[in-house]
Specification:
This protein is an alpha+beta fold and 379 residues long. It folds into 3 domains: 113 residues, Acyl-CoA dehydrogenase/oxidase, N-terminal domain (Butyryl-Coa Dehydrogenase, subunit A, domain 1, Orthogonal Bundle), CATH 1.10.540.10; 108 residues, Butyryl-CoA Dehydrogenase, subunit A, domain 2, CATH 2.40.110.10; 144 residues, Butyryl-CoA Dehydrogenase, subunit A, domain 3 (Up-down Bundle), CATH 1.20.140. A hairpin with a 2-residue loop joins strand 9 and strand 10. The relative contact order is 0.12. Bound molecules: flavin-adenine dinucleotide (FAD). The site of flavin-adenine dinucleotide has 24 residues, from strand 1, strand 3, helix 10 and helix 11.
């Protein structure tokens, strides 16, 4: 049965998250304007106080997990408050999902509870390399077997939560000429010798989700930290990316919704030639189109999450959700900048931040072109 009605519990949780996320706007502008560095302490505090990580950790490992649809609801609300904070959270969800899909009970037991520490904790997924993030079938980062260890060498860039992560899930190639079959994923704890973080990137958007380069210099990782069977890293990566895409879609929906509210409020107040600009069809029709696109994006996110919840294939649907939602966010914020005119352009304003963040979300987790390639391959 298909239902668009949320349960009372879902609505209450959504409202609870919204009540603090909606107050983040001025803090997020401050963080956005700050020099690049590690995650803002107040954001870590929110992650801890709101117990966000418990929502993604199974009960066996001290969490209080939500189903994927409910998780998308809260991700949308966090994205409404700040796409940067939501991306910090989604990066952690990503790393956790790799462990949930391929990790051993020992790995889950050792690493997942680290994310429930009182001060607030995050994790990182290290996939992209300088040579190009879209090619996920080969890596220059290597993992060489030596006795009971793998020795990791290479560089990943850009990595959300770098420097603050309790652990990194790192994809590397374990042999030359073996292509996908040689790819493995490893869990590398924060303080491991040879893990070098920096520099932090002074990027135009998603500045509230700091990224840095993470280099691995002869990092010794015990074999027991290999996630899944040897050679299963490529499949694990595809499954992890599929899972994450719907949640990045939810962030885009939240961001676009916040931007649209801002545009509507502005358009009702802004008087030009003796009437609010919203009275012009040239403006109100754009707002109608944006509202429709945002609702359509949310439905795509919900569908992908629902498919996850009932254990059906969701590769195509997850990519559709990410593609459509990120393009809707980019269009909403671009129209927002136009409709707000100089009011949005000349001074630090949320709309400009929204637009810069939305551009980052078109790239992160696979660009729009890559989503189209995935969808086309499934037709
Ligand atoms: C803010 C931000 C945070 C990030 N955080 C992380 C992180 O935490 N961990 C991580 O591993 N990565 C992270 N990334 C990296 C991100 O996943 C990659 O940027 C993304 O996958 C694209 O890779 P690329 O930027 O190297 O582009 P490239 O792969 O170099 O591609 C360049 C352009 O070519 C296009 N293109 C490539 N191949 C094709 C093709 N076959 N057909 C058509 N077009 C094509 C791409 O769509 C893109 O437009 C982050 C990126 C950003 C912007």
């Amino acid at each position: 049965m298909i239902s668009f009605e949320l349960s009372t519990e879902q609505k209450e949780l959504q409202q609870k998250i919204h009540s603090w996320a909606a107050k983040l706007h001025s803090l997020s502008l401050k963080i956005d304007a700050a020099k690049p560095g590690s995650i803002n302490r107040q954001y870590l505090k929110i992650i801890a106080e709101e117990n966000l990580n418990s929502f993604i950790i199974p009960e066996d490992y001290e969490g209080q997990p939500l189903d994927q649809l409910t998780l998308s609801l809260i991700t949308e609300e966090i994205g409404y408050g700040c796409a940067g904070l939501a991306s910090i959270y989604a990066a952690t969800v990503h790393a956790v999902s790799a462990l949930l899909i391929g990790g051993s009970p020992r790995q889950k037991n050792d690493f997942l509870p680290l994310l429930l520490k009182p001060g607030g904790a995050v994790a990182s997924c290290c996939i992209t390399e300088e040579k190009g993030g879209s090619d996920t079938a080969s890596f220059d980062t290597t993992a060489r077997q030596e006795g009971e260890n793998y020795i990791i060498n290479g560089k990943k860039i850009p990595i959300i939560n770098a420097g603050s992560a309790a652990f990194y899930v790192v994809w590397a190639s374990s042999g030359t000429g073996r292509g996908r079959a040689g790819i493995n994923a490893f869990i590398i704890p924060k303080e491991t010798r040879g893990v070098i973080v920096g520099p932090y990137h002074d990027k135009p958007g998603l500045r509230c989700a700091p990224t840095a380069t993470v280099a691995f210099h002869d990092v010794a990782v015990p074999k027991s930290n290999l996630v899944g069977l040897p050679g299963s890293g490529y499949l694990l990566l595809m499954q992890t990316l599929d899972w994450g895409r719907a949640f990045f879609g939810a962030i885009c929906v939240g961001l676009a919704r916040a931007a649209l509210e801002e545009i509507i409020s502005f358009a009702k107040k802004r008087i030009v030639t003796n009437r609010p600009i919203i009275k012009n069809q040239g403006i109100s029709f754009i707002l109608a189109e944006l509202a429709t696109e945002i609702d359509a994006a949310r439905l795509l996110v919900w569908r992908a999450c629902r498919l996850m919840d009932i254990n059906m294939d969701y590769t195509r649907e997850s990519s559709m959700a990410k593609l459509f939602a990120s393009e809707a966010a980019a269009r909403t914020t671009s129209e927002g900048m136009l409709i707000m005119g100089q009011s949005g352009y000349l001074r630090p304003h949320l709309m400009a931040k929204y637009q810069r963040d939305a551009q980052g979300l078109r790239i992160l987790e696979g660009t729009s072109q890559i989503q189209k390639m995935i969808i086309a391959s499934q037709l």
